[in-house]
Amino acid sequence: MSKENDMAIGKTLWAIPEGYIPAQSTNGEDSRFVSHEAACLLNANDGDAHITITIYFADREPAGPYRVTVPARRTLHLRFNDMSEPETIPRDTPYSSVIESSLPIVVQHTRLDSRQAALALLSTMAYAAG
Questions:
Q1: What is the pLDDT of residue 12?
Q2: pTM of the model
Q3: Residue 61 CB: number of other CB atoms within 10 A?
Q4: CA-based, 20 to 30 A from 17: which of 39, 45, 89, 110?
């Protein structure tokens, strides 16, 4: 069976309807405190999870797919700010994302907004769409 068929049979979907990467941060050069969006992906399976991410916008065609692999029994904290292939996600632009995985995984969404001196951190579980 081909890899494409494997993904079609075992695919799971997650949706994060609220996304926004601020263009500004107030915390200088320390990358830990740069405003960002992240998807924390947990693969507790015995096989690698092949992930695709599609980004949706209100006023333009979707971006993606972005592709990553989460190795078996591992986690990946993926900053949306760092995703650049096939294109960079625009800053100061609302978006939504759909994450597709070849295996069942756990997806948690996190946002750090450091535009003000008092940091704001949001974290929630993604919506399992299928």
A1: 86
A2: 0.80
A3: 6
A4: 45
